[in-house]
C-alpha cells in the first residue's frame, strides 16, 4: 500500500508505559527514539503530560507520565537526524495543566493528543483549543466508542466537527473489540458527523486484529496510524510498527531500525513485562470488555491461562 | 457474521502434527475430537493418510501421519455425539496409496483433501478423481499460490474447473504472506478460472493475519474455512478456531468446548512445543518465503529472537 498522505505515529513509549508505570530506562527510550528517526516515522509520542502530585508522584509513576521539558530534551538531544519525527505527548482529560506548556515554537513538543471518553468530549475539546492556541498540532482521541451510547457519541462527533482547533479526530478501538466491519462502520459514522476532519486510527490487538484493522482503516482512507515497536502496549498491545512498515510501500520508511531496536532492547524487555495476544485478551476483546479483568487474570500465576474459567466469568457479568 | 452456508473445518491435529511429527498422545486427540463434536464444527481433519515405509516409519512420523482405520476408529468411538463432525484426512501428492482406502460407505472418513503445488495440479486431480470414485467428499488444496507462476496457476485452476470430482477448491496462504487485498485478488482469480467451484480458505498467521484474512475470505463469499484450536500449526500456526467461532454468529456453534480443551490440553502443550506469531515468522511472511528458514532460526536457542539478523539474511537471498 502506497499513499503519500499516510503518516505513522509511533506511540511505543506512551502506550507501552501503561504496562510498567512508565519505568522505562533512558537507554531504551533513546534507542526507541533513534529507531523512529531512522525508520522515518512521522510522529513519536514520548509519553503523557500529566500533573505530578502527592497522590501521583514521579518516582512511582515514571518520568514519561509527566514528560517534563528537560526529560524530553535529554532524549531529543541524544540523536541527530534529518528524519526526526514530530514529537507528541498525550493529555488525559482532568489530569493535566495546560499552563505547564510553553508556546509550541519554544518547545520540543509538536503535537498534543487529548484522550477522553465520549461523554467528556467537550472537556477534551477545551484542552484541544487551549493547546492549539499555544501553537500545537492537536488530536482528539475518543476512547472506547464501542461502549458509548451512540447518540452521545454522535453529539461528541458533531462538537468535534464544530471545533476548528482539532486537526485529527481519532477512532480508538480501546477494547480490541472491532472486526473490520466495525472499523468500516465507525469510520462511516465519524465521517458522517465530522466530515471536515482528518481521521486517525488506534487499534488494540486483543483478537489479533490490530494490524489488519489498521489496514482496513487505510483502505477506508484514514491517514494517521498509530503503531508501537513490537506491538507493545497495555494488555494485548497495539498494531506492530514493524508489520505496518512492511505493509506500507512508501520508500521513505525503513523497517530495519525497528527490527534492530527489537533485537537489542525489546526482546530482553519481554523477559520483564508481558504484552501481546493471548487467549484471555482474546475473550476480553470478543466480548467488548475493558481489559482490566483480563489484566488481573494474567497477573495471577495460578489462573493466567485458564481461558475457560475466564470465558465463563465474563459471560456471567455480560 | 451469520451465513448459514459457512462451514468450519478443524485441522488442529493435521496441521499441528507438522510441528511434532504427529506425536500427539491419544488423550489429546480424543479431547480435541470431543471439543470439535461439542463445538459443532463441520469437519475434523484427523491427520494425513500417507504410506508407511522403511524410510517413513510410523514410530518416527507418528500415527496421525498415516491415519490407519483402527487409529481413527479408536478416536471416533471414544465419544458419542449428535453433532459429530465429518471426518477428513489429507493426501499429499506422491506419498499416498489410494488402494489403502475402502469405499466411503464402509469408512469413518468422509472427506479426503488432496494437497499439491500449482505445477502438480494434474497429479492432484488424479487423486481427487480416485477418492471421489470411492465415494468421498473431495477438496484440492493448491499450496503456495503466492510463489506460483500465474500462468501455471491459471492453467491448474482451469483443470480444476474441468474436474467434476472436485467438491471444494482451496485457496491456501502457505507462507502467511497475504494481506486482505491479496486474499481478494486470489479469490477473484480462482472464481474467474474455476467459476463453478465452491471455495475453501486456509490461512497462516505469520503476520497476525490468519484470522482477519479468514474474515476477508468470508466477506468475499468463501464458505469452507480452516482453523485450529489455539491456532496450532506449523510455524506461526493457523487461524484460531476459538476466535473464528466468536466471530461467527451461527447459533449452532459453541466456543466453550474449545476454550475447555485449550485450558486442559493446549496450555500444557505450549510448554513442550512452540507455535504462533513472533518476529521471525512475521519477517518470513512479509517477504513471502517458505517458513523453513524461520523454523530453523527459532530452533536455534542462540539466534531465535535475532530478528534484525534474520531480516538482513532474508533480504540478501531475496
Summed up:
Chain A has 318 residues and is an alpha/beta fold. The first copy, chain A, has helices spanning 12-20, 26-39, 58-61, 69-76, 121-133, 150-161, 180-193, 210-219, 241-247, 256-269, 279-286, 292-299, 307-316; strands at residues 7-10, 43-48, 86-92, 111-117, 137-143, 168-172, 198-202, 224-227.
Commentary on this structure:
- The structure is a homodimer of 318-residue chains.
- In chain A, 41% of the residues lie in helices and 14% in strands.
- Chain A has 318 residues and is of the alpha/beta class.
- Chain A folds into 2 domains: 7-269, Aldolase class I (TIM Barrel); 279-316, no CATH class.
- The first copy, chain A, has an 8-stranded parallel β-barrel, surrounded by 5 helices.
- The longest helix of chain A has 14 residues, at 26-39.
- Chain A starts with 6 loop residues before the first strand and ends with a helix.
